[in-house]
């Protein structure tokens, strides 16, 4: 297996096994989505209208969980130093960690989203649209999150800080994700353009976030 | 280039800034006085907005500086990441709270201006929203700086975030604008009156220069304070290391 594949597999394994916390993210997503109707009321029409936004905000919040330990654990037990000493590019580590973290935490949430969407009275087309946009957009959220994780890797308690640093940067993805979903449901609004922009965000962040994350890790280690 | 590298020497910087600072204080005081006089007594009240249009003379320069300050931080961040100038680091760090203050001032005056004009304190307008995101980013940067106890490491980590934010700001601005045009067609606020009249443009320009001078003054003073703070920190650490060493020697002497 290539190095990237190994890093991805290791990250997925660490996330999914006991104490990894990937499934806690799924429960957290369920809890966030379940709490919203208590706040806005059980009106099914209203829930159907704001449902895609609720799901997207739920995914955005759930994507912040677990980032804190993504590089901090490597740094504490010295494996980050060993990795650097091995001469392999740090970019690869950040990319692999990002992909693995998304498979362990992001993908289950995307799969759960249509079920929760059903409870929010979303129409079938909205269910498909929200799942498609989440599938296309949630990797970008994770990649941006890896930059926050790399920046705060040297800190004893970086969790809150990651949220503050990452949320403003995630605004564009949220905007276009919800917009594409609404575009699929309401007729005059476009679906393809915002959906392609969401895909572009994911591709661009897959390239740029590992670069920034590697730089942040290198700087934080000095 | 030799001039810049001379400036990068903290001692040389302290000498030079001590000489420049009084002049900057005087210049910004005089320009601000002229600007305030022009905006309160010379500029005419707007035919629609009345006297409340005078808020613009504070609001627009503040918003302009909010952006200028972040650009300055981005340039400094490149300086501290690529050339590792200790002063670039100091410049970026001391600019962040000032930038946050100007951003807050822009948001606050905008809100105060919005109440009589649009009838509400806050509109989720594209420009307001992107300035709000900028404000959160400033606060996040300040929080990141404060989270590290080693200032030079904090400076480089924050520099990475500053550059990430700098790449993101145009994207955020563009997406917020798209979001806004789709969600709020024919918004309450329409600023497209006639292009600004010269009787208002002159006070605005003078105020913009005054705000820039104030920024430079405060920034220079904050940079000096930061250089001193780091020297105090180094001296304290050296002093803290001293007694331990002497205790060690006494123990050795007794032993």
What is the strand and helix layout of this fold?
The complex is a heterodimer of chains A (222) and B (255).
Chain A: H1 3-16, H2 22-40, H3 44-62, H4 68-76, H5 79-85, H6 90-119, H7 124-151, H8 159-185, H9 192-221
Helix pairs in contact in A: 1-6, 2-3, 2-6, 3-6, 3-7, 3-8, 4-7, 6-7, 6-9, 7-8, 7-9, 8-9
Chain B: H1 2-7, H2 10-42, H3 56-83, H4 86-118, H5 126-147, H6 151-183, H7 198-254
Helix pairs in contact in B: 2-7, 3-4, 3-6, 3-7, 4-5, 4-6, 4-7, 5-6
Would you kindly provide a written description of the structure presented here, covering whatever features stand out?
The complex is a heterodimer of chains A (222) and B (255). Chain A contains nine helices and no strands. Chain A is mainly α and 222 residues long. Chain A has one domain (3-221). Chain A starts with a helix and ends with a helix. The model of chain A has no long low-confidence stretch (mean pLDDT 89). With 255 residues, chain B is mainly α. Chain B has one domain (27-41, 50-185, 199-233). Helices cover 83% and strands 0% of the residues of chain B. Chain B has helices spanning 2-7, 10-42, 56-83, 86-118, 126-147, 151-183, 198-254. The interface between A and B is medium-sized, with 25 and 29 residues.
Task: List descriptors.
heterodimer, A: 222 residues, mainly alpha, 9 helices, elongated, B: mainly alpha, 7 helices
Tell me which protein chains meet in the greatest interface and how many residues each side has.
A-B, 25 and 29 residues
Would you count the extended β strands of chain B for me? 0
Task: Profile the largest sheet of chain A.
Answer: none
Give the biggest beta sheet of chain B: none
Structural class of chain B: mainly alpha
**Strand segment tally of chain A:** 0
Number of domains of chain A: 1
Mean pLDDT of chain B: 82
Explain briefly what this protein structure is.
Chain A is mainly alpha-helical and 222 residues long. Chain A contains nine helices and no strands.
